[in-house]
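Proteins fold reproducibly. Take a tokenised chain:

. . .
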Amino acid sequence: MQIAFHRNMIWILVATLTLSALAQQTAQPTSTPQPHPLSGLERYRNSRIAIFMNDFGELSRYRDANAALKAPAPGENRVVFFGDSITDMWNLTELFPGKPYINRGIGGQTTPQMLVRFREDVINLQPKVVVILAGTNDIAGNTGPMTLDQIEANYTSLAELAAANQIRVVFSSVLPVHNYTPQSQELFAQRPPAKILELNHWLKGYCAAHGCVYLDYFSAMVDDKGFLKKDLAEDGLHPNLAGYKIMAQLAEAAITQALSPAPH
């Protein structure tokens, strides 16, 4: 009888302690997990979901302009400037007055997107030369992580498509970047200078081996630290007018070289 009494007392004690612990846990306020702040790249990707899903190459951007464009006139040295926002923001009419140069840049694009639209925005326009400026958004990962090998494979595909359609290729170097201003910090962090150097080294070698023209913007726009000269871009990436004037002179020389008869 006494043993049973002690057992009951033990169970009552255990139950009391358990209920007390549960009550304390319930009384403690629960903290709501705070969402992890999105990076600029994550915000950009989220804003582009509809485009990535419905028109990955953004073929709609120039569809009407391409349809309205007439075939090149006899003897016309038509050139297509093909690229991302650096090309998109370039006022070709201002810096190449009277030249039959066509802008087919789209902000934010990577080489996979450019491959998707290369036929509509370059081949079908029948240019003699295409000036390709790409790669910086690939390094940044605008459409997802990419290795240098993958970027180089896309460059190769663009060059081979152009060659198959008798279009001469000018491959532009990736521009340097800087972090000298508040608005340049994140763009710079997404584009490690070492990767830009490595990709440009490959591009130069590819051009030498495959008869393309290498357009070296990098050397003319880099400072003694290996960064983009501060006075050429406020955000560390996109050239201002002073930057575009430097690029225009180099591009004109590269186009002239591309149009010259190939040495026998």
Summary: The beta strands are 79-83, 101-105, 129-133, 168-172, 213-215.
